[in-house]
Amino acid sequence: MSQQPQPSGLDGLTELQALAMDHALGGGSRAERKAAELRLLSDPQFRAAVERWQTLLAPLDDVTPGVAPPPSVWAAIAAEVEPQPRRAAALPAVAGGWWNNLGLWRGLAFAGPVLTAVAITVLVQGTWFPGASAAVSGGPALVATLADADGKPLIAAAFDPASGEVRFAPVAASDQATGGTVPELWVIEGKNPPRSLGVIDIAVGRSQTIPRDRLAGLKPGAILAISIEPTGGSPTGAPTGPVIATGKLSAA
Amino acid sequence: MSRPNQPFTTGSTELAALLVRVADDDAAAFQAFYDRTSAKLFGVILRILIERQESEDVLQEVYLIVWRKAATFDASKASPITWAATIARNRAIDRLRARPPRAHVPMEAAVDLADGGPAQDAGLIHDQDARRIAAALATLEPRHAAAIRACYFDGVTYDELAAREQVPVGTLKSWVRRGLIRLRDLLEGSQA
After folding, report:
1. Whose CA is closest to B129, among B62, B182, B59, B190?
2. Contact partners, residue B90, CB within 8 Å, separation at least 6
3. What DSSP line would sit under A89-147, residue for residue?
4. Domains of chain B
5. Which of B20, B49, B85, B167 could bridge B171 with an S-S bond, Cβ 3.0-4.6 Å?
6. CB distance B126–A22 less than 8 Å?
7. Which of A5, A53, A149 sits opposite B174 (nearest CB)?
């Protein structure tokens, strides 16, 4: 019998090298690509390997003929980008707190990613738990918009250092959480592997209190990620299921 | 050792400067960046997705990502056009993967591995790096080179390619990975 290559096709490469090639070339399945995208966030060596292959392959694009897109494409992009009065936006007056305004979140669901990120930032700047200033609470409020692999925002998250709460609001529905599974929140700080912040409930407007020791040192720039795990959370301490959303924390 | 294939041309410098302004929410800079790069990115996306409306949707999505992520562009890692084209290719491939199986481009429209040799592209290549990688690809075993091209240009999966070529997926991956290693050795070996 002839000896076939191993099913993995590693050919003496490390797994990291092989998967980095696969991701840069793009031949993987949907699930493989999602797994690689999470790894890109948490594994700088992997990211460097992928970037190296992307750079090596990039000159191939030169043979692909350019095609001018129709003007309607720029018009649609500009409509998402230009009319947003960024930063100086007036704050909507929302009785009972902006967070509990479901209409606001539903509205965001139909807005583009840019609008969503901008709107959340502006709102948090203006009305983050009135009365509790960031200086008193020992750190800035942090916000993140968690988007799926296509860049579509799924969930907005905000962390209030004063109360130690993380709040979530779904921006769009995800079909990936089904029976027997739960979403689990992870934080990826710098070069460290993902650290679990626990199983979460992402129903509209729910807040989630996360033990303070887990939140210690949470800073702008850290990545939040949500994976789908068996009930009770990841059995291994690392994400095992598909990652449905990721987003970077920034100071509110 | 210097990194290979970093086209830090004047054009790259200008595009990088535009991205810095885009990161600062400069809509005019964003439009200038779009004007200079959108035809290339649309070409990359269209080649993968074929279907025009879907390609326009992805192009729009890609530029919204560029707008949002301009601050993360790192000129020490990639040229602006490589950075943006990589986003475009990844989004197009992800969109392709998300299609229901029925909606895939018919087989006859897909690139056959027997075709698509490098010669057909030679006349279109102006950039020196592009000529070098085309020359390097031409030295590979033709089926290995064709598999690499099908993945990169058309977004075909290893599984689909293996089925077409009637080889186990492991074999197909071996072809591709060996081909890529050889490409890298050729390109980096020829750097002075």
Report:
1. B190
2. A26
3. PPPP--TT-GGG-HHHHHHHHTS-HHHHHHHHHHHHHHHSSTT--HHHHTS--EEEEEE
4. 10-103 (1.10.1740.10), 107-189 (1.10.10.10)
5. B167
6. no
7. A5
B152 interfaces chain A, CB cutoff of 8 Å: yes
Instruction: Name the range with the highest mean pLDDT among A38-52, A101-115, A171-185.
Output: A38-52
Report d(CA A239, CA A57) in Å as an integer: 30
CB contact under 8 A, A76 and B60: yes
The ipTM assigned to this model is: 0.83
Distance from C-alpha of B172 to C-alpha of B178, rounded to nearest angstrom:
10
**Cα B5 from Cα A56, distance rounded (Å):** 6
Show the beta-strand stretches assigned E in chain A: 142-147, 153-160, 165-170, 181-188, 195-199, 207-209, 223-230, 243-248, 250-251
Q: Verify whether the Cβ–Cβ distance B93 to A33 is below 8 Å.
A: yes
- Is the pLDDT confidence value at B147 over 70? yes
- Span A103-251: which CATH code? 2.60.40
B156 — contact with chain A (CB < 8 Å)? yes
Q: Give the residues across from A246 on adjacent strands.
A: A147, A225
Domain with CATH 2.60.40 in chain A: 103-251
Q: Could you tell me which of A252, A176, A189 has the C-alpha nearest to residue A224?
A: A189
3 state DSSP class of B3? coil
User: A143 or B92, which is more confident?
Assistant: B92
Q: What is the pTM of this model?
A: 0.58
